[in-house]
Amino acid sequence: MMSPQTPPGAAAAALDTAATTTHGAHLSRSLGVGGNVLITLSGISPASSVFILGGAALAGYGTGVFWGFLLAGVISVLIAFCYAELASRHPIAGGDYSLVSRVLGPAAGAAVFFIGLVSLPLIVAIFALGVADYLGVAIAGLDPLGTALIVIALAVVTACFNIRTNAWVTGAFLFVEIAALALLALLGFVHVERPITELLDPQALDAATGGLAPLGIAGLVLAVTQGIFSYNGYGGAVYFAEETKDARRAIAKAVLWSAGITVLAELVPLTAILMGADSLEDLFGAALPVESFLSASAGEAVSVVVLIAIALAIVNAIIAIALQSGRLLFAAARDRAMPDAIARPLAVVSARTKMPVAATIVMGVLALAACFIPFDVLLNATGSTLAFSYGFIALAAFAVRRTRATEAAASADAVSPTAAASAAANGYRMPLWPLPPAIALLAIGAIFVIGILDPAQWLSLGIAFGIVGAGFAYYALYLRRSPAALHLLHGDDDEEFSA
């Protein structure tokens, strides 16, 4: 804690240094906004989102993808506003878990921790099991399981290198996938077959007639939901808060830049495909619409090169998510949110690489084990958890303003220049509050309503409710009986590792 005589500039510098030495951990504060954005975008993997989720959306919702992904982009930016304000107030490693636990309390934090603990390794497994499908265009006969295990092992090893090395590695891969998206956009816009005004009337393929038919409001809402899932991941910037310079201001920028770039990187090529496809009926009826458009527009040889680039993009995403998942477990261990015998080794940071190696390896082992779970179970187990995470973030974005108001009132009576500097360092405040979290909650509510009305989603929703319920049960049975953990999770030591 700074003395009352410490000048504000020195206080900020001290906080920046303290963020690297939390509870004996030594994370390296060596990332700028750009490095953080490179890793975050790599975890989102816009190219694989366009080919996989975007392709599925084209098949299901036709030209409704334009409105669906456009509206989803607006909602995603509003959720990014929530992340940005929360992260500037609590720039702590651990992602959603750290934000929610500090603002809504340790019970909600435990629920979000369980969501991440389960979903992140499963997402890595899902991505890894799909790598063979794309590498198969160049290397025939690849075994999906064997390929997945090798890819995860290599990704986890890479994730144990220092953070700047990972920023460079993921940045190089990211350049390749952005080039693939730029090619898609170029192919569509160079050979425009229909004006953008034709996309304003949502139409989808009618399986009965083989022609186009108007897309109902329910289908459009589902397209929006698909877009939200496709853009997901910009909140990943928060995982690297303690490794980002001038974190209180920089993390908000990293979140907002990541969200904005993701929306453009996915919406523009999908719009180009809709405008440039020779036949919308053929496009929507194809088993793999984006690959079909690419092959028809650029030829088989170019398609093979691009599909290999998508495989590299997926590997890149696995590296980035391995980095995030390691910091989730590290942050929870450092908060003593688990028994000391488990927490102590997981909270250790390598003296050489300044990375939470043990926590990263443990999460990698969980991802390796998840590869042996049936693929449809993996999808169901991760399908509805995102809506819960966003719901907690939106609720926290409401609550954080009340916390800020209390702090501002306290600092107004303080005579310490350090207290005044700390109050001034609260950071980013979202525009139009409380509209962003309110609209986000409405969108999340719509996702839940759709899920409840669709029996096909009941299993996914049930698993998600079970994970959240397990988190609250963990709090009730263990965490609330741990004074040390509650002290940290209420944010009492946040100055020690925020900047």
Set down the secondary structure blueprint.
Blueprint: H1 8-18, H2 33-44, H3 46-61, H4 64-89, H5 96-104, H6 106-135, H7 144-159, H8 163-190, E1 203-205, E2 212-214, H9 217-231, H10 247-276, H11 280-285, H12 289-298, H13 300-334, H14 340-346, H15 357-370, H16 375-383, H17 385-412, H18 417-424, H19 435-453, H20 458-477, H21 483-489
Antiparallel strand pairs: 1-2
Q: Could you please describe the fold and organization of this structure?
A:
71% of the residues lie in helices and 1% in strands. The protein has 499 residues and is mainly α. The protein has a single domain (32-402, 433-491), classed as Up-down Bundle (Amino acid/polyamine transporter I). It has a two-stranded antiparallel sheet. Helix 4 (64-89) crosses helix 9 (217-231) and helix 13 (300-334) packs across helix 15 (357-370). The chain starts with 7 loop residues before the first helix and ends in a 10-residue tail after the last helix. The model is unreliable at 1-24 and 409-425 (pLDDT under 50).
Biggest sheet layout: 2 strands, antiparallel
Shape: globular
Q: Could you say which structural class the secondary elements and strand pairing correspond to?
A: mainly alpha
Q: Specify the number of helices.
A: 21
SSE arrangement, N to C: HHHHHHHHEEHHHHHHHHHHHHH
Mean pLDDT: 86
CATH architecture: Up-down Bundle
What is the CATH homologous superfamily assignment?
Answer: Amino acid/polyamine transporter I
